[in-house]
Amino acid sequence: MNIERDGDFITLSMGPHHPATHGVLRLEVTTDGEVIAACKPDIGYLHRSIEKIGENLEWYQFVPYTDRVDYVCSMNSNHAWVCAVESLLASSDETRLQIPERAEYIRILFAELNRISSHMVGLGAMTMDLGAFTPFLHAVGQRELVNDIFEKTCGARLTYNYMCVGGVTSDLYPGAEQEVRSFLDGLEKAMREFNKLISTNNIFRNRLAGVAPVSAADAVSFGLVGPNLRGSGVDFDLRRDRPYGFYDRVKFEVPLGRRYAGEKGLLGDCYDRFVVRLLEVVESIKICRQILDQMPPSSGKEDDPVGGWCVAKAAQKALRKPPVGETYFRCENPRGETGYHLVSDGTKFPYRVRIRTGSFTALSIFEKLVPGLMIADLVAVIGSFDIVLPEVDR
Amino acid sequence: MTISVGPVSDSIAGWLVERGLPPEIAAVAAVLLVCAGPVLGIAFPIAGVAQYFERKIAAGMQRRKGPMVGATGVVRLVVDLAFFWMPRWKRAALVARIERAPVIGPILGKVRQLGLGSIAADGVKMFLKEDMSPAGADKLLFYGSTYLALLGAFLAFAVFPFSQWFHMGDTPVAALYLGAVTGLVAVSILKAGWSSNNKWSYFGGIRSVAMIVSYETPITLCIAAIVMWSGTMSLQGIIAAQYHAGWFSFLGWNLFQSPLMVLLAGVYYVAALAECNRAPFDLAEGESELVGGFHTEYSGLRWGLFFIAEYTDMILVGGLFATLFLGGYQSPIGEQWIVSLPPLGEALAHTAIIVVKFLLSIGVMMWIRWTLPRFRIDQVMGLAWTKLVPLALVGLFGLAVTQVMVASRSGMRTVEHGRYLSAPVVAMDLVSVAVSWVVLGGLVAVLVVLAKRHAKGRGMPEDVSKVLLGEEGA
Predict the structure, then answer these.
(1) Sign of CA dihedral B133, B138, B142, B147
(2) Which of A152, A219, B2, B110 places its Cα 20 to 30 Å from the Cα of A165?
(3) Mutate which of A130, A140, A270, A274 to test chain B, going by most B C-beta atoms within 10 A?
(4) What DSSP letter does each residue of B102-148 carry, written as one string?
């Protein structure tokens, strides 16, 4: 048998085709038996130069490409892009758009629904990585219900292309509110089942407790965002601290990691990140309910400032001649802060599009975090950071 | 010298000799027939059925509708196979016409194949796949280890009793023999992992050997305890020792003899799960970690052989669990009437009962597999050496003490020493019975407390566990 020997180490190439790397990630792992001595992420297998494509498309044409930046939460990516473009347009009085109130509500409703479905995939995939296949299917079952709602609204189940500059492309279908409510009720029950089945399972918890703890200082200095940052106990959530959309009109708590695994756990370990995601789903349910209570009814007229859903004409006019300047807009996505940096030279094409994503920075901490863990732990770590590869490579 | 592995082969050999065969050939043929009988007639079909049920059970637990419905009609299947050259729409029209036919239509249209075709389809698929070996593989070991896996699984059936006379051979050292041949699985997995020239396979092989060798220890201790209790190493002897006359024959089973037996049974079952590489101990395959573990590089029927070996192992483990703790092939009620049946009826009844016990045991294994996540290798080792081995030792020594102390009790299988039949010994006997039931109560209490803590989410802040599990779950 030909095992490459480098001292007493074996070099394993984990990926790009490996069941646990959630896409085409390659980790070059040097192991001493089961224990990992070094781990080097190797990315770029999914690079599609989305940022460069952005420079060659008109502002509104880029929305479908944001779907592909992170296909697990396309709505949130859409939301971040349209908010970024709208904030650019808002820098001049002539091009500022008055987004209908209902459209803003629909946006954050769908953003939260997609956060739920994205977290369900992340949580489920993590349980599958640890060898429990059943909870994964239960979690993905809930995601299918969200997809049903999205499909009825915009016709797509994965890449929605639903939000547009100036609002959303279509109003909610009749009965959507009721359907979302009944979905949320079912989800609450399903979450409890899921937690009883796997989250509080002792084998599961012992696999995650104390594994790969990230200190708060490390989390900040490596640029971790979203649930990964909050798992380490850093209290920062863009939805609460820099509210966009109508997030300032809803009340919710920001769950933080605090050694959920008990005495075996450490602050910011894999189990903390897992539980923070679980709790975020619970908070998202609350947010969705509040939005449904506050949302004005549809007026049936597209550009009605309260009950409409899109100011398409004004947006088209504004996008033909956007103000010169640049803007950076960031949204709290399921995988953390997603930022769009746009530079405009006043033409209908962006001068530069730059995307900042959470998974990319999460991957950067691997080199520091993983040495000393076992191969089975590495799989848990990948799952706990909820890395989605197209977001890393773009 | 004639070869004989028991009365069955003898009678078959005699029958063949009467038909004019030379006695040597008749003896060998009889032994071969008798050996192949249980494996081909019972183990293989059960492996097929078990695989079928695994799909159904998994689908049921995961709320996947597809495998639970199995809705393709038999009519459509037959038409598709018989008229495969026709375009699809013609076949569909034919099916519709048959199902609309006046008398047979409503009957035939309701017949569903329930996914039974997938058992055959799986076999055909495996036969048709290319048999590959990776470049740089050690061909001899690579090909040989598949047969070794099967050998280990099948050899164990050589001493396995299906009924009082339906067994291939019962040596007086059957328990020792079983310990030896089940170890062959470890060798085959190690060889498969080593010879594949693949690092993931290599890891799978190493993990599996470390694990199987560790878990052999508690298993052997459990078997030793039963051997001591029954006073024999022969499996037939162990089963015969559990015979209890009267309606409630399950009262004679080892499991109900002492609380320590419950403990040993638990230890044995957990260790046996690890022994046959089933979840939560499936580290050797470790699909999400090691891609496919030791069988990453195997394709087609060679992979299938590992699969069959795994299922045969599961059946064997279930059978041994039944033999050691649940009276083997004996019926839970009214065993004495089954024993008095004519030989063929007795064999059929007992074989049916042991098959039911196989299936129950396999069902529990599947239930566990589709519920629990996987251990990490250090946790698996810790479980074996820090929990199971001490528990098995407690069981072993506890049983030894019980056996000496309760020597006088009627109904207990034990060495009889007349001199213990005195008043203090009888008093000790009563005390030991009381103690053993207190121990059982204590065990149950500990289990209940553990289960409650588990449900609460131990160590988790109260407010969070309330949010996660709901008010009523906390």
Answers:
(1) positive
(2) A152
(3) A130
(4) TTHHHHHHH-B-TTTHHHHHHHHHHHHS-----TT--HHHHHHHHHH
Helix, strand and coil percent figures for chain A, each rounded to 5: 50, 15, 35
8 Å CB contact between A308 and A100: yes
- Residue B295 tokens, joined: 């069988």
In whole angstroms, give the CA distance from residue A69 to residue A73.
9
A143–chain B nearest CA distance, Å: 14
Give Cα separations from A173 to A153, A297, A300, B267, B322 (angstroms): 6, 12, 11, 58, 59
- Note whether B259 and B207 are within 8 A (CB): no
Contacts of residue A69, defined as CB under 8 A and 6 or more positions apart, other chains included, come to A50, A77, A338, A355, A357, A390, A391, A394
pLDDT tens digits for range B370-393 = 888 888 888 888 888 988 898 899
The two three-digit tokens of residue B313, written as one number: 């192992």
CB B297 within 8 A of CB B134: yes
Rg over CA atoms, chain B:
26
SS (H, E, C) B199-224: HHHHHHHHHHHHHHHHHHHHHHHHHH
| SS3 at position B457 | coil
Q: How far apart are CA A35 and CA A32, in angstroms?
A: 5
Q: How many CA atoms lie within 13 A of B107 on its CB side?
A: 3
- Which helix H or strand E contains B44, and what residues bound it? helix B44-62
Chain segment A213-258, per-residue pLDDT in tens: 898 898 899 988 889 999 898 888 888 888 888 888 888 889 888 8
Question: What would the two tokens of residue A123 be?
Answer: 């949580």
Contact present, A165 and A90 (Cβ < 8 Å): no
Residue B61 forms contact with A (CB below 8 Å) = yes
* Chain A contact set for B279 (CB, 8 A): 131
Please tell me whether the overall predicted TM-score, pTM, comes out greater than 0.90 for this model: no
Q: CA–CA distance from A53 to each of A45, A50, A86, A183 (Å)?
A: 17, 5, 20, 37
- Can you tell me the ipTM of this complex? 0.79
